[in-house]
Design a protein that fits this description.
There is one protein chain. The chain has helices at 6-20, 24-31, 35-43, 63-81, 97-105. Helix 4 (63-81) crosses helix 5. Helix content is 55%, strand content 0%. The protein is mainly alpha-helical.
Amino acid sequence: LIYLPTLIKSAFLEESFKNFFSDEKAICSKMFLNREQIREMSENGMLIGNHTYSHYALDSLPISVQKQEIVDSSHALEDLTGLKTTVMSYPHGRFTNYTFSILKDCGFNL
């Protein structure tokens, strides 16, 4: 695929995804945890950590947006589990020095 022209490659991939992944909801239900599964895991002692709200690479975002991504995800997880999130897994493994300051200010364990 890497040697095909971009237009042909795009058309091929689009058609392949239509054929193999026509039911996006069914695919997502198998690939990602739902709210009930996350709640059950938390209730059974599993530590649920922050991974941001929208999964953008943090080093590609302005500081204010990094903070909003972290805070929004923390609130969503706390609403779901009833527990404060204090650990972080960086989307795509990417972050900035400012990310650490944000996490510290938000009470994360570093």
